Amino acid sequence: MTDYSGVLSELVDGSWEEPGTGKHYDIGIKSLVIRDSLDGDEAALIANLHHGKRISVVSDPFTHSALGSRIYKTLKADGQQVSEYVWQTPQCSDTGVDQIRKATPDCDVRIAVGSGTVNDTVKYACFLDNKPYSVFATSPMNAFTTATASVSFDGFKKSITCRGAEGVFFDLSVLAKCPPSLISAAFADVICRTTAQVDWLLSHLLFNTPYSETPYTLLAYDEASMIDNASRMLGGDIDALGMLTRISAIMGLGTRFTDTTHSGSMAEHQISHYIDMFAGDKHPGSSHGEQVGIGTVTMSLLQNETLSRHSPPVMRATRIPTADLIERFGPDTAASMVAETEKKALNSQSADELNTKLANEWPDIRKRLSTVMLPYAQVENAMRSAGCTITATDMKLDQQFYCDAVRYARFIRDRFSMLDLVDDSDGLESFISTMPT
Ligand SMILES: [Zn+2]
Question: Among 98, 251, 325, 341, which has the highest number of CB atoms less than 10 A from its own CB?
Answer without folding.
Answer: 251
